[in-house]
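FOLDING PROBLEM:
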Amino acid sequence: MKSIKKLLRQAASALESEIETVREKPSTDILFNGVRQKTSVGENTDYAFECHQPAIRFAEEIKAKTGEKELTVHPVSYEDKTVVLRFPENLGKSISEVHLEWENDFILKRTLAEILKLEDREEETRPRLKRLFHPETSQLPGTEVVADGKRNEAQLQAIEKATRCRTLFIWGPPGTGKTDTLGYIIANYLKNGKKVLFSSNTNRAVDVGLLSSLNALEQIGADIKPDKVTRFGESALDDERLEDYQFDLQIEKIVQKRKEEAGEWVDLLARREKALRAVEKRFKNGKNPTNNQELELKLIEQKIEDAGGLEELEDRIDELAHVSERKELWKKQFVATTLAKVCTSDLFHDLDFDAVVIDEGSMANLPYLMVLASHAKWHMVVVGDPMQLPPIALTNDRTSREFLERDIFTTVSDAENSEQLFAWHDDNPEFTAFFDTQYRLESSLADIISTVFYEGRLKTGKEPLQSLDQLNDRAFHLVDTSRYSPFLEQKSGERGFKPINTVHQSVVVRLVQNMQKRGIVMEQVGIIVPFRSAVYDLRNRLYENGLRNVEVGTIHTFQGREKEYIIFDTVMSGEQQHGRIRHYSVRPLDEQKNGLSVPRLLNVAFSRSRRELVVIADMVHINKMYGKKFLGRLLKRMS
């Protein structure tokens, strides 16, 4: 394992390379039907558009083209999939279409700045980073843990270890109750008076983790005041239980309360000013103040004196008019936010927490985790599954990409495969935990996943479903499309690998139509494909056939998600070229080109269903190109 100094230098170098790549490949989007807002200032005019790229809010400036006009616009806000953009001129009541391009490097630049700060303060931060990369076997005095009586043995051990370990790695395969147990870990920290930072990659995961923690606090009867808990950043879930914990709303309430508190004193000073002017006017007219005027002024001055005097009262009003968000954040005992927010918000600068808990930690890149570790005084808990998706990077620099795509589990264990990961876990029970019972998947599918991905260590705690939906009492089905002679085509005029398999698209459409006839609600169905371009093609094909409520996405899209029914379309067949069919393997599905990422990708794809999984594959192509590889072996087990 490298020294902390070398790791920090490597992190800085990798981030610089990633920033350079992102600038060369700016983000783009096309937005429609922008509506002019009343918030416009001067010649600048704000327009609101529906937008599905939250990262646009971090753009420092955006190149915009609408019609023949080319403009520079700036993001004002992004909430509820609506972005408000500020244009330098008024373009009318609405904008029908605008093409956007921006450099999406804000988070990377701020994270790099944080890494450089850690380098400058290496003597101070080294112990915390060292505990992350070189976990200690020595432990702190433990405390009695409290749970809901429903935790299994592995989960209870993890909760208990979290109270003693300086660093704890929890390996939780899909459906093993990671998030629920994480809630009880946080609840026990809070019950014991510890200050906790909870973080994850996505807003949705943060919301789910926060709700889990609030539920756990209620279950164990821990009395934590609501104003001591905050959700920092934008929520993804539309859940009313989250409203009282939104940091922005909490600040608004404080501001309103302070305005009300200041209002009495502002009125008092206004009355004093008015009384003094009335007295001054009498003097100018050669008259003495009336008895009522003298009495009123005396009463006002007495109130001011009782409040500490004029100067102190003015200072108090000034203080009430300003709220320090940093001070308010520091008052919180439990903060839930994304990794990106911790790395980019100045409010977290120098804030320490007794415990830092990270969900989906196997998907977080190492620079993020370094920044988070620097905030952890006593405990750091990383929850994830190193057999699911690792972080992703765009840089073409091999060394930088390998560093940014290395997850914390394989980094600390120095493992190259699942066997070495399990050996690391077995050799280090003091700071590792493995959740060995899953409750999501049907046993027939869970048995395959346990055998292929987890050395047979994953048990099933779920009662089998009595359902007519399943065939032959199995929760998985393989549809071999080779009898239909499928073949790939490439999108004409498109750059990069953009495969189209029209035969597979037709099979998916017929399959979904049959599911609909069986009474399956379309919102319960998810379709996974390994290529982003195939998402849009398949989504359009479904729309054309009136199937508009089925979610289609890549494997990365469904990470951390689940549906009752999952269809996984491998897409790949031989490609038709000059009248011949050419077979070849591709990076997402070939471990010779993509290493450990292949079993991770397939593990995610195969473990998203609660009830039923259908895999669509051209087995002639699979056997030819992947027969002895991971995908081929997995599909053969299914068949």
